[in-house]
Amino acid sequence: MLDLGSDPDSDCFTTFFNTLSNNKDNKIQRRFTNQQIKSLETIFQSESKLEPRKKLQLAKDLGLQPRQVAIWFQNKRARWKSKQLERDYNILRANYDSLSSKFDILNRENQSLTLQLQKLHEVIDKKEKICSTRENSKDSTEEKVSEKGLGNVSDADSSMKLEYPEHNSSMLVVDILDKANEDNWEDLESDQLLNEAAIGDTSNQWWDVWC
DNA sequence: AGAAGTCCCCATTTTACGTCA
DNA sequence: TGTGACGTAAAATGGGGACTT
Q1: B strand bases under 7 Å from protein CB
Q2: Domain-wise residue ranges, chain A
Q3: A167-184: per-residue pLDDT in tens?
Q4: Which parts of chain A register pLDDT below 70?
Q5: How do residues A187-203 score in pLDDT, each as one tens digit?
Q6: Are A196 and A170 in contact (CB under 8 A)?
Q7: Would you say the C-beta of A16 is within 7 Å of strand B?
Q8: Which of A12, A32, A46, A180 could bond to A185 as cystine, CB 3.0-4.6 Å?
Q9: CA at A80, C1' at C3: how many angstroms apart?
Q10: Residue nearest to nucleotide C3 (CA to C1')
């Protein structure tokens, strides 16, 4: 290997070296000059495939064999394709990461909502049992009063009225459901609903006024 | 229809050259 | 400072498919 100690990127060096190689081995030059590369790159930017006539003209202009020009364009297309593949991969990877992140957020939200729903079902069941017990006990008392001749009580009066007292700090579950039934229910944030339902305030729960 | 020529793509090899111990 | 091993990019090769004549 010749080491001339000069800038290997300079045209002078390359030309000189190629000349040496040509004279020594009587072969065509192996490395193209910077000027040749520049011309080839410029044309490649506008057309990645060369027409035969243009190829011959370009080879003549650059002092190369037409076959060399054709090979250069083939290799250049391969290199460009490889780079493009890398760019596409990076774009797809970024999109995937973004979607994956969103999926994780939605998944966690879904788990949280499922848990909250389960708790609500448990509370409803519990309260319904309590209501049922109280109603039975009230009915038996009224039967006793009626037997003592205090008058008949109409069904309407005896039926339990579901009255909601004013409750500023919490939203009733029916309100939540009404809200969810609106057209824009998708806009409701789960956190908002949970906050409005005052799940965390055990001293003043909406289900305390259920009966 | 099929043989010959040409071009291109693709995988692979060869070569040039920089870096580092 | 010289040198050989190694890695990498570029140039070249060869096989095979598609197309034209």
Answers
A1: 6-11, 15-18
A2: 161-211
A3: 333 344 434 444 444 444
A4: 1-29, 140-211
A5: 444 444 444 444 444 44
A6: yes
A7: no
A8: A180
A9: 36
A10: A1
